[in-house]
Amino acid sequence: SHQQGEWNVGFYLDYARRPLELGAPLGTRRTGVIDDTVIMNVFGSYGFTNWFEAGARVPVVFWNNWQGLNTVTVGNLTRAAAGNQFTMGDVAIDMKFRLLDTEHVGLAVVPFVSFPTGKSTVFDGNGYVSGGGKLALDFDFLERVKLGLNMGGVYKENVTIRGEIGRA
After folding, report:
1. What is the full DSSP assignment across 89-111?
2. How far apart (Å, rounded) are the C-alpha atoms in residues 124 and 58?
3. Given this model, what pLDDT does residue 70 score?
C-alpha cells in the first residue's frame, strides 16, 4: 500500500496468444483477427492520502500480429490492412481507493478511464473514451511473498466482424 506523498513507478509485460479470433459453433477457430500481441504497460502513481492514490498507465504495443479483415467495422471506423504494429495503446487514468489495509490483507476499488490515444484501426485502442473498474485483493503471506487477485470489467462498444457482433 502507498502512503501519503509516496510515488510508485514501474512497468509490466502482457503477452496474449490469439486474443481475438473468429470462431464457429463449438469453439472451432475459423480465422484470427489478432494472433499475437506483446504490450509493455508503463505506469506511475502518487499517494494523495493513505487511502487514495491516482496515476496514469501507458501501454506500448511492441508486437500486434494483426491479420486484417476488410469487413471489420466499429461504428463508422474501418480497420486497416494486415501487418505487425509498434504503437501506443490507449492511455488510462487510474484511481485507487483503499478500503482495507491490515498487516496481511488489502482490499481496494480501482476505477479507471482510458482515452483514445491508440490506433483503433488495428485494435490497439478503442477509438473512444472508455472506462471501468476492478476490485483488488492482496495478501502478504511473508515479508517478501505477496499474492494479488484482481477482477473487474471495462465498458466497450460492440464490434462487427464479418457481420458478427461481439466485443473486442
Report:
1. ---EEEEEEEEEE-SSEEEEEEE
2. 12
3. 44
